[in-house]
Every structure is written in structure tokens, then in C-alpha cells.
């Protein structure tokens, strides 16, 4: 009931979210800074962030794979990488409280974007849609996203539709120069009749939504 149109290739993205133990975030980020190059030697990292608002003590990272065989090969290599296991995993795992992963595809009308410059903030918005997939809500959802883009207040980085995990979930990644720019843009969008009309149509298919303000790590390609 959830699978729908996606990019016309086997590429998918694994979204990994870790809850870090309270008071251990600083230590965890130090371990990442010191040893994460062992992980990125094996496959492509899209982005790595920690939460600033909307959630506490969370990190989120996104990995790109050509197909499932590629991911299997990478996971096998990581299991046998002594540096990764002995230096990063042994130090990081005691700091992690919970792990969660999802597999998602970019929706077919979206290409993965990049920010206008480094140094901004990212917003990760999760929409739980009604069962039925894009055949039910895809057009209305796309119209709502486009309406926000057309206001010019924010930049779209990517729209991801889950294949494994909680189905009928769409994650939207936005970029803004600062939290204040994001706040000003939201205010403008709420007064824009085009946005209001598009959102009013799309929320008929919405079950819930939540968001996080994310800060990129130094190792993140998306900064």
C-alpha cells in the first residue's frame, strides 16, 4: 500500500538515526571526528547532522547505495574492517542509546540538491501520510512542496519516500542560511495564498508530521 513511483534506477538511501545517551553527545561527536573516515572509505555519505531543535541527543546520517547488493558488500567489508570495528565501534557503541534505520528512495520529481553555501542549517521534516502511497497523495504532496519552493524562502535538498521502515513516510530535507531566516520565511509562506491553498489540499492525506533543526558535522558533505 505504500510503494509508489521512484527514481528510474536502483539507487536508494539509508537513513540512520541514533539516540545518544544524555550528556554523551560531545564525546560521541569527538569519536566521529576522530575515526569516521574509516566508515566513509567504504561508501558514499550524503550528510551527517546532530539535532539542535525538535529533538535532543540525536544524530542523523544518510548513505547512498547503488543497489542492495552494494549495501550488502559494504556491510560485509565494515564487519571485517579492524580499524572501523576496533577504533570507532568500540568507542561509539557505549555512547548510543538506540539506533533506527530506514531505506528510502528519492521521489522521481526530485534530484538531490546542495545548499547555496556552507554554514547554514537544515530542517528535516517527516510526514506520515495516509496508506495508499503516491497514487493517493503524491500529486497533492508535490504541489505543497512546490508551493513552498516558489516562495523563495527556503531551498529544497531532497524528498525521500520510505521503502523499509514506517511505510507511507516522506522525509523532506530543507536548507536555510540561519534559524532566523527560516522563521521569517515560514511567516511569509503562511501569508502566501498559493502556499495556503496547496497545503490545505495536501493535509487531507496527512496523519502526522514532525521536524528537527539539524546542524551538519564537519565530516558531512552537505554543510
UniProtKB/TrEMBL annotation:
Task: List, alphabetically, the Gene3D superfamilies matched.
Answer: 3.30.70.100
Instruction: Give GO terms for biological process.
Output: mitophagy
- Residue span, NIPSNAP domain: 13-111, 122-221
A Gene Ontology cellular component where this protein is annotated is: mitochondrion
What InterPro entries does the record tag this protein with? Answer: Dimeric_a/b-barrel, NIPSNAP, NipSnap_domain
Q: Which family does it belong to?
A: Belongs to the NipSnap family.
Q: What is this protein called?
A: NPS3A protein
Organismal lineage: Eukaryota, Metazoa, Chordata, Craniata, Vertebrata
Give the gene symbol: Nipsnap3a
